[in-house]
Amino acid sequence: MFYSGIDYRQEPLLTAQKDRGVWSVSYKTIYWEDVVEGDSLPKVSLELTRDRIVMIVCGTRDIFPLHHDIDFARASGYEAPAAPIAFLQGLLGRCLTDWTGPTGKIRKIALSLNSPNYQGDTIGVTGKVTKKYMDAGNHNIDCELVMTKQDGTVSARAQATVIIPSRTSGGL
Amino acid sequence: MTEKTLSPELKKYIGRSSGFFEGPDEVNKAMIRHWCEMVEDANPLYTDEKYAKSSEYGGIVSPPTMQSTWVYPRWWPPVEMPPDIGPAQLDLPLEDVPIPAVISLTEEYLLPIRLGDRIHYMTKLDSISPLKKTRVGEGYFITTTNYYFNQRDELVGTSQYVLFRYRL
Prior knowledge:
Chain A has helices spanning 50-60, 70-75, 85-100; strands at residues 2-3, 6-7, 14-19, 22-27, 40-47, 105-113, 122-135, 138-148, 154-163. With 172 residues, chain A is α+β, with helices and mostly antiparallel strands. Chain A has a single domain (2-163), classed as Hotdog Thioesterase (Thiol Ester Dehydrase, Chain A). Mean pLDDT of chain A is 89; it is low at 1-10. Chain B is an alpha+beta fold. In chain B, strands 1, 2, 3, 4, 5 and 6 form a six-stranded antiparallel sheet that branches. Chain B is built from four helices and six strands. Chain B starts with 7 loop residues before the first helix and ends with a strand. Strand 6 (105-113) of chain A pairs antiparallel with strand 2 (99-109) of chain B, so a sheet runs across the interface.
């Protein structure tokens, strides 16, 4: 399944990249007609460095010490500070619109938690299209996403629904 | 131990709604950028004014997944929250099961959240399970839904939490 010569299963449709020292963002639109059930979403991965832990407090405003204080986390039975759910949702949202491009609309994310994502972990997110269907005039895509840590542990799973435009019936 | 039914004392809380709580700030570019930096989200609808203006939204929108952050209470000075708001349901008579663990979270995003919007929310208690014994301990599965509204009282989204409140 190709669009403009690019196999979106290999390359995200929305990327920030550095070219000769300058960051720029490029984006394309994925259309309903191009999607096939079973397609993979581009993999995203992010390392939970100490700087990232600070950025998470800044981004989510969640200052509960489990998310940034190593002593508190250990005293509560955790190995290290653990990323809050809001961060996981943000990351899943990013994966979805990296794939669809900015014209994709996230309608729903159902997330179930298996094990904590700790400071020092690298979280990889993979996804695939499970269902393609019309609903109330919208072109819906259901995806299944899996968050996996560097040692292969699944930390969370999610089911998401996005609405994307069609070439023939509207959308941008 | 695992019980078959829920005590009448807890049953009476099912279906109740909390008071409302309004987020401290209107939806703004700085907080959206902090969120995008955190997950390296390059979606131009969130941070590129020129692109967002030319889009169907006509301006910058918040990442939908940020809806609960808009009602996160300020850090200082301390703020009073409605007692029965939020997934932990802190005022339920469940002092004997003090440890909360979120099992799952389902969010729906119904309307775009735009710059300048003021978001407020409330929580409804959907269900409480009978006492269950699990691998981690014994406690209750508590299901709640947060409803998020904008300044026109339009429902912009929901979050349904399943939380296990347990003891070791």
